[in-house]
Amino acid sequence: MAHHRSEIPVLTAAEAGLVGCRHCGRVSAPGTSPCPRCGFELHSRRPESLQKVWAWLFAGLVCYIPANLYPMLETRFLGTTTGSTIVGGVVDLAHHGAYFVAAVVFIASVMIPVAKFLVLGYLAWSIQNRVALSRHRRTQLYEAVEFIGRWSMIDVFVVAILAALVNLGIVMGFNPGAAAFFFALSVACTMVSALSLDPRLLWDMAEGTDPE
Amino acid sequence: MRHEALTPGVDGDDELIACTICDALHRVAPMPHGGRMRCVQCGTVLLRNDIRALDAILASAAAMAILVISAVFFPFLRISASGFSSSAKLTDTARAFAEGLTAPLGVALILVIVVVPVVRAVALFYALLPIRLGGRPARGARKAFRLACELRPWSMAEIFIVGVAVALVKVGGMATVSFGPAFWELTLVVLIVVLESYSFCEKTLWRIIDQKSRS
User: Going residue by residue through chain A (212 aa), what tens digit of pLDDT does each one get?
Assistant: First the structure.
């Protein structure tokens, strides 16, 4: 369905010498800012969009390394304390037979962050290079990344709840590990990275260079 | 009676809208009630003509504020094992991060679970309720709605509830868990967020605010 649409030659606001607002869609004359309708800063294309995407993405990637090396959760049981990393926690869950929950945590804490790094990097790279994926496909990737990124926070919340709830003196208890901090920071950085990407840049490529 | 909200006229017949995803330029055409206008190039929904969406947003904002605030005051989970028992309130989860490197996380946690959802709800109410009642937007309505839009990705009460479910499975084998009222309140929040995300069309709402403040 979408592919038939791309056959129609379409005039963009930029080609018409106008500026479309990224937030409310209002069309203004160039030089207008902020947008008279919504008050957000008005740019035809967000300036330095790609630099911001790369910078936040890199920051998120750097935070993701200690997030995986330090323990996420420390378990106190009868006087002994053991720490488990993100992946260690998933393995523990699977050992206890909670395969579904293990899968949820694995998807939220490992698959989604890694996929986000790859997709955001790919999208930013695709704006400057010829790529095989169509603009429609890349827009779908962009929307998926923007939608799903927040859900990576699940594991941080799990740690917070466990530490607050399970505090039965010396018998049993949980403490948050340093990884929780780095992981939350990593998720926040990649969220800002996704928000910095101006999707209109994905569509600016001339029709001839777009495969399909 | 307020169905005329989306018919063009304020800007004349030449009102244009640019797709916020691909920048394609469109002329705003009258839509049937309940209809939507999609971008011809990328298919993104540009405008919706459904005044009930305003009701859904206001209803979910009110429910969200009430539920999140009251969830702060009731315990949400209680566990017991081998004679010991403990219960947790929402604020305890933030206090769990009180020490060392994770301390800023406690503040962030209360922000994304409690403060941001409530501030967003209040801002939406302030910006949209006068319009729903048929009047002009309040002073600063644009600022309030802009705040609500900017805070949207950082409102995470519904993600927290999924986290609770995962945490329960983790302790399920070791202790008995019972649910407090705050748990069920937050579960309702998840449903409300789904409802809101379905009715929330930023471009349509901006256009309504714009038209109503000039009429």
Answer: 444 444 567 899 998 999 999 999 999 999 888 999 999 999 999 989 999 999 999 999 999 999 999 999 888 877 788 888 999 988 988 888 888 888 888 998 899 999 999 999 999 999 888 787 888 999 999 999 988 888 888 888 888 888 887 776 667 778 888 899 999 999 999 999 999 999 999 988 754 444 44
Prediction pTM value = 0.86
Q: Where are the domains of chain A?
A: 1-44, 48-209
- The residue range of the domain holding B39 is 1-50
Out of A155, A160, A162, name the one closest to residue B171 (CB): A162
Give the domain CATH number at B127: 1.20.140
Residue-wise burial string across A102-122, b where 16 or more C-beta atoms lie within 10 A, e elsewhere = bebbbbbbbebbebbbebbbe
Asked whether residue B41 falls in the same domain as residue B138, the answer is no
B162 and B95 co-located in one domain: yes
Q: What are phi and psi of B48, to 5 degrees?
A: -125, 140
Query: CA of B1: how far to CAs of A100, B66, B133, B145, B192, in Å?
Result: 49, 29, 11, 24, 26
- Does B102 lie in the same domain as B40? no
Whether residues B24 and B121 share a domain: the answer is no
Answer whether residue B69 is part of any domain: yes
Q: Any CB–CB contact under 8 A between B107 and chain A?
A: no
Name chain A contacts of B95, Cβ cutoff 8 Å.
Answer: 164
Same domain, B103 and B30: no
Asked whether the beta carbons of residue A199 and residue B41 sit closer than 8 angstroms, the reply is no
Q: By the CB < 8 Å criterion, does A163 face chain B?
A: yes
